[in-house]
Design goal:
- By secondary structure, the protein is mainly β.
- It is globular and about 40 Å long.
- It is built from no helices and eleven strands.
- It starts with a strand and ends with a strand.
- The chain has strands at about 5, 10, 20-25, 35-40, 45-50, 60, 70-75, 80-85, 90-100, 115, 120-125.
Length: about 130
């Protein structure tokens, strides 16, 4: 059974940084579009960043450009989201998602993805 497991969330002060990890089992993430989303209470799930399964380049939402970086470690079969200069509006549950097909560009639309993790809470507060 395919599993995506997020980790690395927690409490961080405004202006701080966190690195989230998404480890996969039963699928390989190399050549597979993988993305990070978040959902705050009362809000819709928001696409943040996606690493292409075709080029391995990152696609970013405007709200994260310059602050978030998505990378992949093929040896560890893990995708990361490095977040910096965090503020209270970044407080949310963060999810990773992966495409069931390989070699596709990816998207920041939640409906594009087939596999989802259980989420990790990120709280930005002083």
């Amino acid at each position: 059974q395919v599993q995506l497991v997020e980790s690395g969330g927690g409490l961080v002060q405004p202006g701080g940084s966190l690195r989230l990890s998404c480890a996969a089992s039963e699928i390989r993430l190399d050549h597979r579009a993988t993305a990070w989303f978040r959902q705050a209470p009362g809000k819709e799930r928001e696409g943040l960043a996606c690493i292409s399964g075709r080029t391995s380049l990152g696609l970013y939402a405007d709200s994260t450009k310059g602050r978030f970086t998505i990378t992949r470690d093929d040896a560890r079969n893990t995708v990361y989201l490095q977040m910096s200069n965090l503020n209270s509006e970044d407080t949310a549950v963060y999810y990773c998602a992966a495409d069931s097909e390989v070699g596709k560009a990816g998207s920041l639309v939640a409906g594009y993805f087939d596999y989802w993790g259980q989420g990790t809470q990120v709280t930005v507060s002083s």
